Protein backbone atom coordinates (compact mmCIF):
# COMPACT_ATOMS: atom_id res chain seq x y z
CA UNK A 1 0.00 0.00 0.00
CA UNK A 2 1.47 3.35 -1.01
CA UNK A 3 1.33 6.50 1.14
CA UNK A 4 -1.59 7.97 -0.82
CA UNK A 5 -3.70 4.84 -0.31
CA UNK A 6 -2.86 4.78 3.40
CA UNK A 7 -3.97 8.40 3.78
CA UNK A 8 -7.31 7.49 2.19
CA UNK A 9 -7.92 4.52 4.50
CA UNK A 10 -10.76 5.26 6.95
CA UNK A 11 -9.71 5.88 10.54
CA UNK A 12 -10.12 2.89 12.83
CA UNK A 13 -13.32 3.17 14.81
CA UNK A 14 -13.24 3.22 18.59
CA UNK A 15 -16.10 2.25 20.85
CA UNK A 16 -18.51 -0.66 20.95
CA UNK A 17 -21.94 -1.58 19.62
CA UNK A 18 -24.50 -2.41 22.31
CA UNK A 19 -28.02 -3.64 21.65
CA UNK A 20 -31.00 -4.18 23.92
CA UNK A 21 -34.44 -5.44 22.94
CA UNK A 22 -37.26 -5.93 25.43
CA UNK A 23 -40.86 -7.05 24.96
CA UNK A 24 -43.53 -6.81 27.64
CA UNK A 25 -46.90 -8.55 27.78
CA UNK A 26 -49.88 -8.66 30.10
CA UNK A 27 -50.48 -11.73 32.25
CA UNK A 28 -53.53 -11.43 34.48
CA UNK A 29 -53.17 -8.26 36.56
CA UNK A 30 -49.41 -8.05 36.00
CA UNK A 31 -47.00 -6.95 33.29
CA UNK A 32 -44.27 -9.48 32.56
CA UNK A 33 -41.05 -9.39 30.57
CA UNK A 34 -41.86 -11.75 27.69
CA UNK A 35 -38.62 -11.43 25.70
CA UNK A 36 -35.19 -10.04 26.43
CA UNK A 37 -32.08 -9.84 24.33
CA UNK A 38 -28.97 -7.77 24.92
CA UNK A 39 -25.39 -7.30 23.82
CA UNK A 40 -22.92 -5.66 26.19
CA UNK A 41 -22.40 -2.88 27.10
CA UNK A 42 -26.20 -2.83 27.47
CA UNK A 43 -27.89 -5.05 30.03
CA UNK A 44 -30.96 -5.17 32.32
CA UNK A 45 -31.84 -6.46 35.75
CA UNK A 46 -34.73 -8.84 36.31
CA UNK A 47 -37.86 -6.68 36.66
CA UNK A 48 -39.68 -6.27 39.95
CA UNK A 49 -43.47 -6.31 40.11
CA UNK A 50 -45.01 -3.39 42.00
CA UNK A 51 -48.24 -3.63 43.99
CA UNK A 52 -50.26 -2.29 41.06
CA UNK A 53 -48.81 -4.88 38.65
CA UNK A 54 -46.29 -2.54 37.04
CA UNK A 55 -43.04 -4.09 35.78
CA UNK A 56 -40.23 -2.00 37.32
CA UNK A 57 -36.89 -2.48 35.56
CA UNK A 58 -33.40 -0.98 35.65
CA UNK A 59 -31.45 -0.46 32.45
CA UNK A 60 -27.72 -1.01 32.94
CA UNK A 61 -24.38 -0.22 31.40
CA UNK A 62 -21.99 -2.32 33.52
CA UNK A 63 -18.90 -0.73 31.92
CA UNK A 64 -19.45 2.39 34.04
CA UNK A 65 -19.95 4.89 31.24
CA UNK A 66 -20.12 5.67 27.54
CA UNK A 67 -17.12 6.58 25.41
CA UNK A 68 -16.77 8.25 22.05
CA UNK A 69 -17.54 5.80 19.26
CA UNK A 70 -19.99 3.75 21.34
CA UNK A 71 -23.32 3.15 19.61
CA UNK A 72 -25.94 1.82 22.01
CA UNK A 73 -29.37 0.97 20.60
CA UNK A 74 -32.40 0.09 22.72
CA UNK A 75 -35.72 -1.16 21.32
CA UNK A 76 -38.70 -1.75 23.61
CA UNK A 77 -42.17 -3.01 22.76
CA UNK A 78 -45.08 -2.85 25.17
CA UNK A 79 -48.08 -4.93 24.19
CA UNK A 80 -51.63 -3.78 24.94
CA UNK A 81 -52.52 -2.84 28.54
CA UNK A 82 -49.00 -3.29 29.88
CA UNK A 83 -47.47 -0.92 32.43
CA UNK A 84 -43.70 -0.56 32.50
CA UNK A 85 -41.48 1.71 34.60
CA UNK A 86 -37.89 2.00 33.33
CA UNK A 87 -35.05 3.69 35.18
CA UNK A 88 -31.28 3.46 35.68
CA UNK A 89 -29.29 2.74 38.84
CA UNK A 90 -27.25 5.95 38.54
CA UNK A 91 -26.31 8.80 36.24
CA UNK A 92 -24.94 8.07 32.76
CA UNK A 93 -21.37 9.28 32.39
CA UNK A 94 -20.15 10.34 28.96
CA UNK A 95 -16.35 10.15 28.72
CA UNK A 96 -13.83 12.08 26.67
CA UNK A 97 -13.56 11.44 22.94
CA UNK A 98 -10.89 12.39 20.44
CA UNK A 99 -13.03 11.88 17.34
CA UNK A 100 -16.44 10.20 17.15
CA UNK A 101 -19.33 11.12 19.45
CA UNK A 102 -21.10 8.56 21.57
CA UNK A 103 -24.50 7.63 20.15
CA UNK A 104 -27.48 6.51 22.22
CA UNK A 105 -30.67 5.58 20.37
CA UNK A 106 -33.88 4.44 22.08
CA UNK A 107 -37.17 3.52 20.39
CA UNK A 108 -40.21 2.53 22.47
CA UNK A 109 -43.57 1.33 21.17
CA UNK A 110 -46.55 1.53 23.54
CA UNK A 111 -49.58 -0.33 22.24
CA UNK A 112 -53.25 0.31 22.99
CA UNK A 113 -53.96 0.99 26.66
CA UNK A 114 -50.30 0.72 27.65
CA UNK A 115 -48.53 2.90 30.20
CA UNK A 116 -44.87 3.87 30.13
CA UNK A 117 -42.83 5.57 32.83
CA UNK A 118 -39.37 6.32 31.44
CA UNK A 119 -37.28 7.96 34.15
CA UNK A 120 -33.53 7.49 33.72
CA UNK A 121 -31.06 9.36 35.90
CA UNK A 122 -29.35 12.38 34.41
CA UNK A 123 -26.47 12.50 31.93
CA UNK A 124 -23.06 13.77 33.11
CA UNK A 125 -20.82 14.85 30.21
CA UNK A 126 -17.08 14.80 31.06
CA UNK A 127 -14.42 17.11 29.63
CA UNK A 128 -14.11 16.85 25.81
CA UNK A 129 -17.02 14.41 25.55
CA UNK A 130 -19.56 14.40 22.74
CA UNK A 131 -23.00 12.80 22.82
CA UNK A 132 -25.79 12.41 20.31
CA UNK A 133 -28.84 10.77 21.81
CA UNK A 134 -32.39 10.24 20.61
CA UNK A 135 -35.57 8.93 22.16
CA UNK A 136 -38.64 8.10 20.09
CA UNK A 137 -41.88 6.90 21.67
CA UNK A 138 -44.77 5.71 19.50
CA UNK A 139 -48.04 5.70 21.44
CA UNK A 140 -51.27 3.94 20.43
CA UNK A 141 -54.84 4.82 21.34
CA UNK A 142 -55.52 5.05 25.06
CA UNK A 143 -51.83 4.88 26.02
CA UNK A 144 -50.07 7.08 28.59
CA UNK A 145 -46.49 8.05 29.35
CA UNK A 146 -44.34 10.04 31.76
CA UNK A 147 -40.91 10.71 30.26
CA UNK A 148 -37.87 12.36 31.85
CA UNK A 149 -34.73 13.83 30.28
CA UNK A 150 -32.12 15.43 32.55
CA UNK A 151 -28.50 16.51 32.25
CA UNK A 152 -25.71 18.17 34.22
CA UNK A 153 -23.32 20.84 32.98
CA UNK A 154 -20.45 18.47 33.75
CA UNK A 155 -18.58 17.13 36.76
CA UNK A 156 -19.66 20.05 38.88
CA UNK A 157 -18.02 18.83 42.10
CA UNK A 158 -14.67 18.94 40.26
CA UNK A 159 -15.29 22.47 38.98
CA UNK A 160 -15.93 21.22 35.45
CA UNK A 161 -18.85 23.21 34.03
CA UNK A 162 -19.70 23.23 30.32
CA UNK A 163 -16.35 21.67 29.37
CA UNK A 164 -17.78 19.07 26.99
CA UNK A 165 -17.56 19.36 23.21
CA UNK A 166 -21.14 18.66 22.16
CA UNK A 167 -24.51 17.58 23.52
CA UNK A 168 -27.22 16.83 20.97
CA UNK A 169 -30.40 15.35 22.45
CA UNK A 170 -33.68 14.70 20.64
CA UNK A 171 -37.00 13.51 22.08
CA UNK A 172 -39.89 12.68 19.74
CA UNK A 173 -43.32 11.57 20.93
CA UNK A 174 -45.90 10.34 18.41
CA UNK A 175 -49.51 9.38 19.10
CA UNK A 176 -51.52 7.46 16.52
CA UNK A 177 -48.77 8.12 13.98
CA UNK A 178 -49.00 11.89 14.47
CA UNK A 179 -46.25 13.97 16.11
CA UNK A 180 -47.27 15.29 19.53
CA UNK A 181 -44.00 16.64 20.91
CA UNK A 182 -40.51 17.23 19.58
CA UNK A 183 -37.77 18.48 21.89
CA UNK A 184 -34.27 19.21 20.62
CA UNK A 185 -31.41 20.29 22.87
CA UNK A 186 -28.16 21.06 21.10
CA UNK A 187 -25.31 22.57 23.08
CA UNK A 188 -21.82 23.52 21.88
CA UNK A 189 -20.30 25.22 24.95
CA UNK A 190 -17.30 26.64 23.08
CA UNK A 191 -19.64 28.53 20.75
CA UNK A 192 -22.61 29.33 22.98
CA UNK A 193 -21.26 29.87 26.52
CA UNK A 194 -24.34 28.37 28.25
CA UNK A 195 -23.43 30.05 31.54
CA UNK A 196 -24.00 33.53 30.16
CA UNK A 197 -26.92 35.74 31.19
CA UNK A 198 -30.22 34.62 29.72
CA UNK A 199 -29.23 30.97 29.39
CA UNK A 200 -28.27 28.58 32.20
CA UNK A 201 -26.38 31.25 34.18
CA UNK A 202 -25.45 29.78 37.61
CA UNK A 203 -27.62 26.67 37.19
CA UNK A 204 -25.89 23.36 36.47
CA UNK A 205 -28.78 20.89 36.04
CA UNK A 206 -31.65 20.94 33.58
CA UNK A 207 -34.72 18.74 33.23
CA UNK A 208 -37.51 18.25 30.73
CA UNK A 209 -40.43 16.08 31.84
CA UNK A 210 -43.31 15.24 29.52
CA UNK A 211 -46.68 13.81 30.51
CA UNK A 212 -48.77 12.35 27.67
CA UNK A 213 -52.15 10.62 27.92
CA UNK A 214 -54.71 9.88 25.24
CA UNK A 215 -58.23 10.48 26.55
CA UNK A 216 -57.12 12.39 29.65
CA UNK A 217 -59.05 15.67 30.02
CA UNK A 218 -57.90 17.44 33.19
CA UNK A 219 -54.79 19.03 31.72
CA UNK A 220 -55.36 22.42 33.34
CA UNK A 221 -55.58 20.76 36.75
CA UNK A 222 -52.45 18.72 36.10
CA UNK A 223 -50.51 21.77 34.87
CA UNK A 224 -51.57 23.73 37.96
CA UNK A 225 -50.41 20.87 40.19
CA UNK A 226 -47.03 20.74 38.42
CA UNK A 227 -46.66 24.48 38.84
CA UNK A 228 -47.54 24.19 42.53
CA UNK A 229 -44.79 21.59 42.98
CA UNK A 230 -42.27 23.96 41.38
CA UNK A 231 -43.34 26.67 43.83
CA UNK A 232 -42.39 24.44 46.78
CA UNK A 233 -38.71 24.84 45.83
CA UNK A 234 -38.26 28.53 44.92
CA UNK A 235 -34.51 28.09 44.34
CA UNK A 236 -35.41 25.78 41.42
CA UNK A 237 -36.55 27.74 38.37
CA UNK A 238 -39.09 26.23 36.01
CA UNK A 239 -42.42 26.36 34.26
CA UNK A 240 -45.18 24.27 32.74
CA UNK A 241 -46.52 24.32 29.17
CA UNK A 242 -49.65 22.67 27.82
CA UNK A 243 -49.36 21.00 24.43
CA UNK A 244 -51.96 21.51 21.74
CA UNK A 245 -53.39 18.10 22.63
CA UNK A 246 -52.89 15.19 25.00
CA UNK A 247 -49.94 16.44 26.98
CA UNK A 248 -48.00 18.93 29.05
CA UNK A 249 -44.29 19.57 29.57
CA UNK A 250 -42.40 20.73 32.65
CA UNK A 251 -38.92 22.25 32.43
CA UNK A 252 -36.73 23.34 35.29
CA UNK A 253 -33.19 24.36 36.21
CA UNK A 254 -31.44 23.50 39.48
CA UNK A 255 -28.13 24.43 41.08
CA UNK A 256 -27.42 21.00 42.59
CA UNK A 257 -28.02 17.36 41.73
CA UNK A 258 -29.91 16.85 44.99
CA UNK A 259 -32.28 19.72 44.20
CA UNK A 260 -32.88 18.38 40.69
CA UNK A 261 -33.47 14.83 41.93
CA UNK A 262 -35.84 15.98 44.66
CA UNK A 263 -37.85 18.09 42.23
CA UNK A 264 -37.99 15.32 39.64
CA UNK A 265 -39.40 12.95 42.25
CA UNK A 266 -42.01 15.45 43.41
CA UNK A 267 -43.13 16.05 39.82
CA UNK A 268 -43.14 12.32 39.03
CA UNK A 269 -45.26 11.54 42.11
CA UNK A 270 -47.76 14.27 41.25
CA UNK A 271 -48.00 13.21 37.61
CA UNK A 272 -48.40 9.55 38.61
CA UNK A 273 -51.26 10.39 40.93
CA UNK A 274 -53.13 12.80 38.67
CA UNK A 275 -52.52 11.39 35.18
CA UNK A 276 -52.18 7.68 35.97
CA UNK A 277 -54.36 7.58 39.12
CA UNK A 278 -51.67 5.63 40.95
CA UNK A 279 -50.04 6.33 44.29
CA UNK A 280 -46.33 7.16 44.59
CA UNK A 281 -43.88 4.40 45.41
CA UNK A 282 -40.45 4.15 46.99
CA UNK A 283 -37.83 5.70 44.69
CA UNK A 284 -34.85 3.99 46.29
CA UNK A 285 -32.92 1.91 43.79
CA UNK A 286 -32.14 -1.42 45.36
Features:
4 helices, 286 residues, mainly beta
What do you see in this structure?
- The protein is mainly beta.
- The protein has one domain.
- The protein has four helices and 18 strands.
- Strands 3, 4, 5, 7, 10, 13, 16, 17 and 18 form a nine-stranded mixed beta sheet that branches.
- Strand 4 (48-49) and strand 5 (55-60) form a beta hairpin.
- The radius of gyration is 20 Å and the shape is globular.
User: How would the global form be characterised?
Assistant: globular
Please count the helical segments.
Answer: 4
Order of helices and strands: HEEEEEEEEEEEEEEEHEHEEH
CA-based gyration radius: 20 Å
| Major sheet characteristics | 9 strands, mixed
How many strands in all? 18
Secondary structure blueprint with pairings:
Elements: H1 3-8, E1 17-27, E2 30-39, E3 43-44, E4 48-49, E5 55-60, E6 71-78, E7 83-87, E8 92-94, E9 102-110, E10 115-119, E11 123-125, E12 130-139, E13 144-152, E14 166-175, E15 178-187, H2 189-192, E16 205-213, H3 219-231, E17 237-242, E18 247-254, H4 257-275
Give a short summary of the structure.
By secondary structure, this protein is mainly β. Helices cover 15% and strands 44% of the residues.
Amino acid sequence: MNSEQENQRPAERTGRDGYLRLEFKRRGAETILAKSRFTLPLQVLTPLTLEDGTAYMMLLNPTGGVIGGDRLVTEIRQHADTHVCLTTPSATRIYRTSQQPAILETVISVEEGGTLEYLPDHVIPHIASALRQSLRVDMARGSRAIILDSMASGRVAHGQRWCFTEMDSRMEIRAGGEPVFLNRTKIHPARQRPQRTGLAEEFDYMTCMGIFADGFENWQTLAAAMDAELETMPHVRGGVSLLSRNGCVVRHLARSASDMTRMNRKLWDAARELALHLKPFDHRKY
